[in-house]
Amino acid sequence: METKILNNSYPVPRKRVSNTVSCIACENMDCLIKRNLDDLEDFRLIGEKNNLRCKKGQQFIMEGAPVNGLFFILKGKVKVFRTGINGREQIVRFAKEGEIIGHRGFGTEEYYSIGAIALEDTKLCYFSKINLQEALLNNSKFAYDFMLFYANELNRSESKVKSISQMTVRERIIDTILYLNRKFGNTNGFLNLPLSRKEYADYAGTAEEQVIRVFSALKKEKLISAKGKKIGITNIQLLKNEISEHNYYLDS
How, if at all, do strands 122-128 and 69-75 pair? Predict the structure, then answer.
């Protein structure tokens, strides 16, 4: 029986899925679990892992839901968001294979401070909080790597806040385009993550109308191309030059 989703919010593990992808067979070499696999083989963390499938547009973490564990993306793309003033959605980041979702609430809070939605059909690895705590308490190398992960996350977050606060709307939108290109790459001249104009606005911290205006200007200047939701970069160096003074390329 597969991991069950209650109210389309967060999973409650029932029993292992028959076609669960083992950590040994996983190809995500950047995954924190994969990197420490040799030291974790004797822990329940590996043997009791569950896989969860999410359809495109399905929410698998509900903001405010109890923290029961962490999610690692096995395959797919996810947007992580939180609700701001007047219920407006603010996209915190986008995530891909090998990345962790829900870690900000783990160990410090009882409830998820973010929500997460699959941007395409996605497969997740779910590790329970109890099994993670056991592994962290009894394996110093894994705990050290986990600590470094949190330190890097904090560094990225602080750098982003500092840089974004000093950028104009145009610069923030350009930064978003370059961020998506670094993180997901492109195929046939278009970014590998097609987003709505609203999603660009929710990440860049601006209004959808502003994104539409800036995209129009960038197309006229032949810096980008557009086809529906698809955005292509025509001149990446000129885009980089526009935000070079901020020296912000930490978020990959």
Answer: antiparallel
Pairing state between β 190-191 and 224-227: unpaired
Tokens 């004797």, residue? 42
Q: By C-alpha distance, which of 119, 141, 129 is closest to 73?
A: 119
- 4: tokens are 């069950």
Contact 196, 154 (CB under 8 A): no
Q: What is the pLDDT of residues 65-95, one digit of tens each?
A: 998 899 999 999 999 999 887 888 899 999 9
Contacts 24+ apart (CB under 8 A), 18-23: 19/51, 20/49, 20/50, 20/51, 21/51, 21/74, 21/123, 21/125, 23/49, 23/125
* 105 and 171 part of one domain: no
CATH assignment at residue 211: 1.10.10.10
Task: Assess whether 152 and 173 both reside in one domain.
Answer: no
Is 251 a domain residue? no
Contact, 32 vs 73, CB < 8 A? Answer: no
Residue 112: which CATH number? 2.60.120.10
Task: Please report which helix (H) or strand (E) contains residue 83, including its range.
Answer: strand 78-83
Cα distance between residue 193 and residue 180, in whole Å: 7
CA distance 129 to 8: 20
The size of the chain, in residues, is 252
One domain, residues 8 and 61: yes
* Separation between Cα atoms, residue 71 and residue 128, nearest integer Å: 9
In a domain, 227, yes or no: yes
Full-model pTM: 0.84
Q: How do residues 149-193 score in pLDDT, each as one tens digit?
A: 988 888 887 777 777 778 999 999 999 999 999 999 999 999 999
